[in-house]
Hints:
This protein is mostly helical. The protein folds into two domains: 1-116, no CATH class; 118-252, no CATH class. Helix content is 78%, strand content 3%. Strand 1 (146-149) and strand 2 form a beta hairpin. Helix 1 (5-30) runs parallel beside helix 4. The radius of gyration is 20 Å and the shape is globular.
Amino acid sequence: MNENPYISILLVLILTSGLMGAIRIFQKRYAPHPEWCRKLMHIGSGMVALSIPWLFQTTWPVLLLCAASVAGLLAIKYLKYLKHNIGRVVGEVKRESSGDIYFPLTIAVLFLLSKGDPLFYSIPIMILTFADAAAALVGIFYGVLHYETRDGLKTIEGSLAFFLVAFFCAYLPMLIFTDLGSKEIFLIAFLLAFLLMIVEAAVGWKGLDNLLIPVIGFLVLKVTIDCTLAELISQALISLSLPISLLLLLFRARFSNSAPL
């Protein structure tokens, strides 16, 4: 851990700026699908963000880092020269989103909530970094079963990809770094992945999922990690029953509305 926080702040800013520059060069040379560049930036930024609990001992440098990041991202988004150059890394995707701005805010909020605890900080960040990217890429390139949300069309395939990646993002760190039993770890990872899959599907409006997925993930992890096996089983059954009940109600309402008078 670096004892000088200013050096750590500078290191993180250089890494993220260099990453964006490298992706822009790749974008200009090979002209990939815009979503690939956006998600490469998303994954790279998330991997840099995972280092924060090991780089900083106190909160104020993280807040300063996140404020500087937000200022830089706003400049890239609204200053014409930057927007039409480096800003095209994330700006080529034809949908309105403030997810890039929410990301550093999320880091600050998570660091405050977790008090710098690597496990409680890293699992939500890993889910946002890898599961969210998997959902978008699988949905765009392989999705055929669509459903409508406030943020547009999403796919069943993308949601399932989110669930699977989120499950392992939670399962593996707990398996390695905690003394919990394997059944408890499985159920906590299942609850996290299932509930956050619903959050990603339901409230990903204009990039807001970049904030809600990690914060809700942290809260779910905090609540469940000390639960007994019986409590986790009951919570899993309740979580599964809610969307099933909602689907049955919607089906019943649609059937009733279509029935002859």
